[in-house]
Amino acid sequence: MTAELARARIAVIGAGLMGHGIAQVFALAGHEVTITDTLAQNRDTAKARIAANLRDLGDDESVVERVRPVAALADAVREADYVVEAVSENLALKQKLFAEIERHVRVDTILASNTSVIPITSIMQGLQHRERALGTHWWNPPFLVPLVEVIETQWTSPEVVARTMELHKSAGKKPAHVKKDVPGFIGNRLQHALWREAIALVERGICDAETVDAVIKASFGRRLAVLGPLENADLVGTDLTLAIHDTVLPAIENRPGPSPYLQELVANGKLGFKSGEGFRKWSAEQQAVLRAKVMQHLKATRET
Ligand SMILES: NC(=O)c1ccc[n+]([C@@H]2O[C@H](COP(=O)([O-])OP(=O)(O)OC[C@H]3O[C@@H](n4cnc5c(N)ncnc54)[C@H](O)[C@@H]3O)[C@@H](O)[C@H]2O)c1
């Protein structure tokens, strides 16, 4: 890694759920971080939210002093070596933002988007220097989930990919290089292949939603954190994997679009936690218990 990213000046655009957590990770790794948001309230509360997270995790709370909330975008990015955008998921907004950012940064400042699903190519196509632009897909909460997918486009320079990988690695993350800018990158393609079949099992009356989740949590879910599917295939043998696929793949869901069952839930206002019912009913207490369980699990498996 070039020396400049060893102790970099990092600008985080968007101080919402993801942005403040990303700023926290970089500050803890020793970088100087500016953070901006068009919403004054999110700028003003960013440091307090980061301090509360650090306290809760038992991390050095004083690193919050490396984070500087800034009102104007130009002031946030002017000195930056690396800019990561975590504003709302809207293509036009992100395109406009990067065009504006490019007016205020050096030509070698790396520009990254934390979009969940928008192709990086679409976001970055209008830039003057597309070789310094790429995607970095963090997972929520950024300070507990290790993965950051680093997505290159056809224009991204190999040096920019390498520096970005190293920046995240040295901040304690597990960066994964995504060599083609495909929808869903790697993690969400895998995750939603599973969700498609999970929904189909309920839709076809094979079991209820609670049973789908119970089956996963009590079986391969237990192993997944230490045994990936391809390690697992090698472990049991590719010949056995082939035999299983011969029988199972023709039987599982392969619809190219969202399930009608899911569409019906949404049309009927069954939106999950936010409406109290989705695939299942959720009381406020049940919601709180599940959220707490997830945080507790992520904290317990956190690598230091
Ligand atoms: N929430 C997740 O689990 C998750 C995971 C991975 C990636 N992402 C992606 O990260 C991005 C941010 O998501 P989030 O969940 O933090 O959303 P959020 O709504 O919590 O935060 C977005 C922030 O961007 C601010 N904003 C909007 N326009 C702006 C502008 N022009 N300049 C500066 N700030 C602006 C908003 O005021 C808000 O504070 C999205 O692209 C999202 O898809 C989210």
Describe this structure in words.
It is a single chain. The chain is of the alpha/beta class and 304 residues long. The protein has 13 helices and 8 strands. The chain has helices at residues 17-28, 40-57, 73-77, 91-102, 120-124, 158-170, 187-203, 209-218, 220-224, 229-236, 238-248, 260-267, 284-300; strands at residues 9-13, 32-36, 67-69, 82-85, 110-113, 133-138, 147-151, 174-178. The protein has an 8-stranded mixed beta sheet. Helix 10 (229-236) packs across helix 11 (238-248). The longest helix is centred in the first third of the chain and has 18 residues, at 40-57. It is globular, with a radius of gyration of 21 Å. The two termini are 22 Å apart. The model has no long low-confidence stretch (mean pLDDT 96). The structure holds nicotinamide-adenine-dinucleotide. Nicotinamide-adenine-dinucleotide is lined by residues 13-19, 36-39, 42, 86-89, 93, 97, 114-116, 138-140.
Layout of SSEs?
Layout: E1 9-13, H1 17-28, E2 32-36, H2 40-57, E3 67-69, H3 73-77, E4 82-85, H4 91-102, E5 110-113, H5 120-124, E6 133-138, E7 147-151, H6 158-170, E8 174-178, H7 187-203, H8 209-218, H9 220-224, H10 229-236, H11 238-248, H12 260-267, H13 284-300
Residues 13-19, 36-39, 42, 86-89, 93, 97, 114-116, 138-140 line the site of nicotinamide-adenine-dinucleotide (NAD).
